[in-house]
Design a protein that fits this description.
- About 40% of the residues lie in helices and about 20% in strands.
- By secondary structure, it is an alpha/beta fold.
- The chain folds into two domains: about 260 residues, Mur-like, catalytic domain (UDP-N-acetylmuramoyl-L-alanine:D-glutamate ligase), CATH 3.40.1190.10; about 150 residues, Protein-Tyrosine Phosphatase, Chain A, CATH 3.90.190.
- It has an eleven-stranded mixed beta sheet, sandwiched between helices. It has a six-stranded mixed beta sheet with strand order 12-13-17-14-15-16, with helices on both faces. It has a two-stranded antiparallel ribbon with strand order 18-19.
- Strand 9 and strand 10 form a beta hairpin.
- Helix 2 packs parallel to helix 4, helix 11 runs parallel beside helix 12 and helix 14 crosses helix 15.
Length: about 425
């Protein structure tokens, strides 16, 4: 029965409408902003949330890093592999929206996954705005059969927008014109190109922040933000585009951007008194790996030690692309375990080693360590003055699906504990 529902778009839509009805159609009482894309959804959602709160709004958020019912009440997400996380199934989703309404929340920012669109979990929601952060091949493509199907599912969010809605699209993305053509909403573009409605350029990047100029039709902004990389600048541009469309003044937007708190698990620097740097990030796709590695190249460090897991739900082709990026850019890559679910984690490590040997990579450039905690410990022990340790894949996740058993595993907490254990001087700042 469940399989029949899953395969029928008509039944999936009916389930979504039933869930909405049983919860009193809460979507009608919220201004809902949908954010979709291959990467950048969570950072953009937290950017928007902060800017809206600064403007006096009460904001809910549903996405990968948690479910905010208002400005202060947060529910943690379930473990990966147990139930849909980013865009929950309709009965969970509409129940969350109902709880937001009960808390007198005004706005809801909803991260919309390709799977959520494929399964029509969001059917019946009248999005006032939709934002596309990026679009590129990713491991999610396998769920859809091919990239064309994946792209079309992403496009669905813009196809369902009304003529009174707004579509915020990345001008520099090769699919900009296609998405623009397939929506009746008002289109606002953003990007580094001067042809985009909201565009800008980076002035300076440091370990602490990025200074940039943002140019808009309403005026220009020069801001210093606690984010790194071109990819995060694009997230900023799309957020600014939305805020301007909402009518927020440039002065408030500038203040909001410059007071943005750290986003958990997104280029999160672990503050220590060690002579090396530690950064934890969610990056787990080829595009995210590429963007992050490009960003850190603009920052000062000596050697790069990269730790990540060989993700089992990715095709071998995607995992080898990640291996190529890691081995080509890092001085030492430590491959380990990350949410193996029911798969044998040792096989993932063997696949990585086979790739490295097949391409005659110097064996001094990589290690395979099955236990993730041991892999993190090894990275800390091998780091020297001015090195950078990049720990990728999990970000702020607190639970790991290990052989179907859910265990607590937070990279950030583990690293802090190890620093203390190794007497490497972790301290709160």
């Amino acid at each position: 029965m469940l399989k029949t529902i899953k395969q029928s778009s008509f039944l999936r839509k009916a389930v979504a409408l039933l869930a909405a009805a049983l919860n009193g159609f809460p979507q009608r009482h919220l201004t809902i902003i949908g954010i979709t894309g291959s990467n950048g959804k969570t950072t953009t959602s937290y950017l928007l949330r902060h800017l809206l709160i600064k403007s006096g709004k009460t904001v809910g958020l549903i996405g990968t890093s948690g479910y905010w019912l208002d400005n202060n009440s947060k529910l943690e997400t379930p473990a990966l592999g147990t139930t849909p996380v980013t865009t929950p199934e309709p009965f969970h989703l509409f129940r969350l929206l109902k709880q937001m309404v009960q808390k007198q929340t005004n706005f809801c920012i909803l991260e919309v996954s390709s799977a959520g669109l494929k399964d029509w979990r969001i059917f019946g929601i009248n999005f006032k705005t939709a934002i596309l952060t990026s679009l590129s091949p990713t491991y999610h493509v396998a769920l859809h059969g091919n990239f064309e199907n994946y792209k079309n599912c992403k496009r669905r969010l813009f196809e369902i927008l009304s003529s009174q809605a707004t579509a915020i699209l990345p001008y520099d993305n090769p699919f900009f014109e296609e998405f623009k053509k397939h929506t009746q909403a008002k289109v606002i573009s953003y990007g580094f190109s001067s042809q985009a409605d909201v565009h800008g350029r980076i002035l300076k990047q440091t370990w602490q922040n990025t200074s940039l100029i943002i140019e808009t039709k309403q005026g220009n902004l020069e801001v210093t933000v606690p984010l790194k990389g071109d990819y995060n600048c694009l997230n900023i541009f799309s957020s600014v585009a939305y805020c301007l469309e909402l009518g927020l003044p440039l002065t408030l937007i500038k203040e909001g951007l410059e007071t943005l708190p750290p986003i958990a698990g997104r280029f999160e620097i672990i503050e220590t008194t060690t002579p090396f740097k530690i950064v934890i990030d969610k990056a787990n796709t080829t595009e995210a790996f590429n963007s992050l590695l490009k960003a850190v190249k603009n920052l000062p460090f000596h050697n790069l030690i990269l730790v990540y897991g060989n993700f089992h739900d990715y095709s071998l082709e995607v995992r080898e692309e990640l291996a190529q990026l890691a081995l080509a850019n890092a001085d030492l890559t430590i491959i380990t375990t990350d949410d193996p679910k029911e798969e044998n984690p040792e096989q993932g490590l063997k696949d990585f080693i086979n790739y490295a040997k097949r391409h005659q990579i110097d064996q001094q450039k990589y290690l395979a360590i099955l236990e993730r905690k041991e892999a993190l410990k090894t990275a800390l022990q091998k780091a020297q003055a001015d090195d950078l340790i990049l720990i990728l894949g999990r970000g702020d996740e607190k639970l790991m699906n290990l052989g179907g058993k859910i265990i607590e595993f937070d990279d950030r907490k583990i690293v802090k504990d190890l620093l203390s254990e190794l007497n490497l001087s972790y301290h709160e700042i």
